[in-house]
Design brief:
Rossmann fold; Ubiquitin-like (UB roll); 4-stranded parallel sheet; 17 helices; 12% strand
Length: 409
Amino acid sequence: MPYERILMKHVGLPHSTALETYRADGGYDGAARALRMKPEELVDLVKQANLRGRGGAGFPAGVKWSFLPVGRDVTYLCVNADESEPPTFCNRVLIENDPHLLLEGILIAGYATQTTVAYVYMRGEFMEQFHILQKALDEAYAAGYFGQNILGSGYSLECYIHRGAGAYVCGEETGLIESLEGKRGWPRIKPPFPAVEGLFRKPTVVNNVETLASVAAIFARGAAWFRSMGSERSSGFKLFSISGDCERPGVYEFPFGITVAELLQKVGGAGAKAVQVGGASGTCVPAADFGRRIAFEDLGTGGSIIVFGPGRDMLHVARNFMEFFVEESCGQCTPCRVGNAKLLEGIEQLEQGTCSNAYLRQLLALCETMQIASKCGLGQSSPNAFVSIVNSFPEEILGRTPVLAGGER
């Protein structure tokens, strides 16, 4: 049975960014229904839908909303539109083609969490996308979907778009919050978590673009409809940014639970040697494991899928990723600042054939330390590609290492 596109149904259509186009297809009807419900009922409905965050971590959105303290005076909603995980471009496509889908999701989430102000933190390089979203936001204000007493409900929400300065680490929620406050984008120590002490030290919810777009879809069609798709623990659908050695790269929408092999068949990736699931900080899956499923219970991802053909040098792939992390580490904590540099040095030694097995084992132990001791998700996940490539392609990696003095490879 062919899959009906949900989030991407307007992509490529004429005038898809206009408010009248969005409303002609039922846009904002879900928000109007939501505003007639109690906020706690909205939170429960998102829990029932089992919507998990689409940024990669997969934390249940409704549960995150319920962490907000009772009796709070101010709540902020921060929308993560930084999308700097290479090469991920799902959110960009949504903003370019269907900005009101995101704005409706912001309105619903804002009412559910009783947010007073929402900030869309947008990647600084998204210049055209900024203007598209700002125009859509202006239309939504003029139509009464933002501002004071929205649709006569008594609920008021202000929304602003803030452009970042191009730092990868600001994709981490507390680094994003620090940047929004005008500070250097350094992740905070947690706890306290943003739900308790976030933007301006007030309770804050942070969701990414695709998560909020999915919220709008849920309120348009219902929680049971959403749960009818996907896998047992990963309900619904996901956008995938497909790049690399395939015939049909681009953005695709598939239900969770699709296997790597099925995805490759759809994008023309026959003969692939490996697939990087989850971007530079994700997992490198060799051809022998293409039966694995893309879902939070197996291969979680924020959307990036990189296909590597049979001619790719996997050690060069690992080097490319580690050069990125060395550049993008904020330098705040030692495991990440020093660890990534040491892994890159180890890759250079492997390329030169001067890395012993003993030292490679030390590097893998260093990866474990980084995953445990780094302050934020950058350092915790940056060793993932190195570990998975070394474990999946040992002959290709170790085949470069000669016998050194002392007899050990």
